[in-house]
Amino acid sequence: MGDTVYVVNPNSTVAVTEGIDRACAPLRLAGGPKIECLTLAEGPPGIQTQRDVDGVVAPLLRLVGELEPKAAAFVIACFSDPGLHSAREATKRPVLGIMESGILTALTLGQRFGVIAILPGSIPRHLRTIGGMGLSERLAGERAVGLNVTELADEAKTLDRMIRVAKELRDEDGANVLVMGCAGMAQYRDRVERAAGIPVVEPTQAAVSMAIGRVRLGW
After folding, report:
1. Where are the alpha helices (DSSP H) in the chain?
2. pLDDT tens per residue, the chain (219 residues)?
3. Whether 121 and 193 share a structural domain
4. What is the domain count for the chain?
5. Do 186 and 18 contact (CB within 8 A), yes or no?
6. Does residue 115 sit in the same domain as residue 79?
7. Boundaries of domain holding 110
8. Using CA atoms, how far apart are residues 213 and 46, in angstroms rounded to an integer?
9. What is the CATH number of the domain that holds 121?
C-alpha cells in the first residue's frame, strides 16, 4: 500500500483544485499520510448535471487504477460523489466521497442539517442521495446560491449569497448545522460559519479527515 491520500477533483477547473488543496492544509500532519490534490483533466469545467456526473466515472476509474499502487486512500472531491461505489469496487484502498462524508460529519454536529447548493438543478440529485442514505428526516432543507462551479471563485458574487442562504436555512428551515454542497466553496467556510453562528462543514475536509483515520487505523 502507498502512503498518499489522493484527493481527486473530477472537474477540470484548476482553481477549484487549488481551493481544495488549501482546505486540506490543516490536515497535513507529521507522520502522514501525504495528501495530494489532483484535477481530472477529462472532466467538464463543473459537474452540474446528472450527465456530468455519469460522464466522469470512466476516466475517474482509470485514474484510480493508475494511482492504486501509490495510494493509501482516495477522496472524490465532488458533492455528487460520482463513481463512488464503482471506485470502491475497483480498488482495495478506502474511497471516500465528500457528500457522504460531509453529511455524516454534520450529523455529529447537529440534529438537522441544511445544504448550500450551487444551482437549483443540483438539488433533486442531492435529495436522491440523501434519501438513499435514509436521512431525509434529518434534512432541514437545501437551497441554492444560483452560481455555477466556475463562478464560485468570484468572491464579490459568492460570499454574500452564501451567507444569505446559510441564514435562510437556519432561520426558515431550522437547520442547526450546514454542509457546503460543492468543493468549490471551500474558501468561504470560516466566514459563512461566523456569519451564520452555527457549524459549517466543508465536505472535502470531512472526507480527508475520515480517510486519514482509515489509513492510520488500518480500516
Report:
1. 14-24, 50-55, 57-67, 84-90, 98-106, 122-132, 155-171, 189-196, 203-217
2. 789 999 999 999 998 999 999 999 999 988 879 999 999 999 998 888 899 999 999 999 999 999 999 999 999 999 999 999 999 999 999 999 999 999 999 999 999 999 999 999 999 999 999 999 999 999 999 999 999 888 898 998 899 999 999 999 999 999 999 999 999 899 999 999 999 999 999 999 999 999 999 999 988
3. yes
4. 2
5. no
6. no
7. 100-203
8. 29
9. 3.40.50.12500
- Measured between alpha carbons, how far is 22 from 130 in angstroms, rounded to an integer? 28
**Using CA atoms, how far apart are residues 106 and 178, in angstroms rounded to an integer?**
7
* CA–CA gap between residue 215 and residue 218 (Å, rounded): 5
Q: Which CA distances in Å does 87 have to 47, 81, 218?
A: 18, 10, 19
